[in-house]
Write a structure and sequence with these properties.
The chain is about 35% helix and about 20% strand. By secondary structure, the protein is α/β, with parallel strands linked by helices. The structure holds adenosine-5'-triphosphate. The site of adenosine-5'-triphosphate (ATP) has 12 residues, from β1, β2 and α3.
């Protein structure tokens, strides 16, 4: 918290609220968390310069999943264990906890496009869902300026409805007025490239088509904080190019984008900053080239 408080004070041009002596590890480079430099380093393109206003503050965040009825290895379903439980009048096997995010802290700014990388199970999707407000912190906190919108491969469109109905409902769900929906409708269809499939139920779409439509709907509106979980990975080359352009536009309109993708090339081309998660903790946070080089090594 001390580090974040200091960082925010600098953003506001004030003296740090926490005295330097109180900051543990002062004068030492931080091992895990490097808060984004502000202002951005000289020589960067205007697009790469965040405006300095924080959009998301993640403060020592811990997320724990509780899995009820999860059996440990020696509790697993055989007849003897079941009978023992019955005789001892025990209920189902005990609850298991999965500590998915372990003390993550960082600040994002207007104009940031942040790639989140890490191995399977390192906590990327969990972190995005927590920023979107879909998972309560076990400890710590997430503060956001504006409404974060999570665009996931599983975003809530209705498979039994046509693409057309999903576009209309999706736009209303994002708070657009009927006239805005009419105005944006054709642009969404064109951007998604699903053509005449728009008249068919989404259950007939390939996973790539569904992902493209979701991205087209979600990005039709300017978001303060847009969280994208792998949606770009399923598109083809041409669609990826269009999506990258769209993400740049969102950044230009002073929003913040978080992008989880296993395709590191997409991250390198789209983001001005990368956070590397490892076993639920931040291993590195900074310039995409540096972080991705370290990530590829190891
Ligand atoms: N609903 C859930 N219930 C219990 N545990 C979960 C749940 N969702 C995720 N986990 C666990 O939390 C940890 C982090 O998962 P998460 O999906 O956030 O990782 P990830 O980095 O996004 O993985 P991937 O790259 O495979 O998508 C994993 O150990 C996973 O098993």
């Amino acid at each position: 918290m001390a580090e974040l408080t200091k960082e925010l004070s600098q953003v506001k041009g004030q003296e740090p609220a926490v005295p330097d002596e109180a900051v543990p590890g002062k004068d030492e480079p931080s091992k895990d968390v490097r808060v984004h430099p502000n202002p951005a380093p000289a020589g960067k393109r205007p697009l790469d310069v965040p405006t300095g206003t924080p959009t998301v503050i993640v403060d020592d965040l811990h997320i724990v999943y509780r899995v009820y009825g999860a059996a440990s290895d020696n509790e697993k379903g055989n007849a003897v264990n079941a009978l023992t439980r019955l005789l001892k009048r025990q209920g189902r096997p005990q609850m298991k906890e999965v500590h998915a995010v372990k003390g993550v802290s960082f600040v994002s700014y207007h104009g940031d496009a942040i790639g989140v990388v890490g191995r399977n199970g390192s906590g990327k999707s969990t972190l995005l869902r927590a920023i979107a407000g879909l998972l309560p912190p076990h400890e710590g906190a997430v503060y956001t300026d504006g409404q974060p919108s999570l665009l996931g491969v599983n975003a809530a469109l209705m498979r039994e409805l046509t693409g057309e109905r999903n576009i209309v409902l999706g736009c209303y769900a994002m708070g657009m007025s009927p006239s805005e929906v009419r105005e944006k409708y054709q642009e969404i269809v064109d951007f998604s490239g699903i053509d005449e499939f728009v008249q068919l139920p989404m259950s007939t779409y390939s996973s790539g088509m569904g992902a493209r439509l979701r991205f087209a709907i979600s990005s039709a509106k300017t978001h303060d904080v847009l969280l994208i979980d792998e949606a770009l990975a399923t598109g083809d080359r041409e669609f990826r190019k269009k999506s990258e352009e769209r993400i740049k536009q969102i950044r230009e309109s002073a929003g913040t984008v978080f992008l989880v993708a296993h395709d590191l090339r997409v991250i390198e081309e789209t983001c001005n900053r990368v956070i590397w998660l490892h076993k639920g903790k931040i291993k590195m946070d900074g310039d995409p080239k540096e972080v991705l080089a370290a990530y590829n090594k190891g």
